[in-house]
Amino acid sequence: MNLDTLGSLNYVRFVFNGDGPAGSEAITKIFTDYFTSQGLATEPSEPTTFDGASFGPLADAGIPTGGLFGGAADVKTDEEAAVFGGTAGAQYDACFHQSCDTIDNVNVRALSEFGDGAAHTIWTLAMTRQPPIGTAGFHRTTGAATGGFGLSAVG
Q1: Residue 11: which residues within 8 A CB-CB, separation 6 or more?
Q2: Which residue of 53, 92, 116, 138 is 20 to 30 Å from 109, comparing CA positions?
Q3: pLDDT in tens, 40-72
Q4: Long-range CB contacts (< 8 A, 24+ apart) of 80-84?
């Protein structure tokens, strides 16, 4: 799970697209469903591409990948500013990898929203009895057979 620049000052709530090994789509869905349940929009376009070099080897090994991204040095669009506020035409985080990138340069609201989404997703995945294998054909189960609750195949 990649949790990147979650405190960007001029943030957008990006969710990585789940276009990785089987199970990646389920991680993306947990994130987006959580934000929807909280009345929080995710980016106004398609989920952002998850092509980080540091996670490529995990995806190549078949490990489901996903995550959140608040934006870095790229520039916020007019459409994104209309959804999330902030300043169109300005970087998501002008201090990204700069000397001003300190604890004093954190958007507490963004960090709180992303942190809650990350905690929810990590908890949801931790409480499953098997890794996510996509969303189709799986449902939450309860009872002694699963020792609590988890995901199980349907059909």
Answers
A1: 5, 70, 71, 84, 86, 92, 93, 107, 110
A2: 53
A3: 998 765 567 766 656 778 888 888 888 999 999
A4: 80/12, 80/43, 80/44, 82/44, 83/12, 83/41, 83/43, 83/44, 84/11, 84/12, 84/13, 84/41
**Reduced to 3 states, what is the DSSP secondary structure of residue 150?**
strand
Helices then strands, counting H and E runs in the chain, come out as: 4, 5
Place of tokens 């520039």: 75
CA angle 31, 76, 66 (to 5 degrees): 25
Amino acid identity, position 36 = T
At 1 the pLDDT is 87
Q: What is the pLDDT of residue 137?
A: 41
Which tokens is 86 given? 């902030």
- How far is Cα of residue 97 from the mean position of the Cα atoms in its chain? 21
Whole-angstrom distance, CA of residue 118 vs CA of residue 141: 22
Q: Enumerate domains of the chain plus CATH numbers.
A: 2-128 (3.40.630.10)
Summarised one tens digit per residue, pLDDT across range 139-153 is: 444 443 333 333 333
**CA–CA dist 28, 101 (Å, integer):** 28
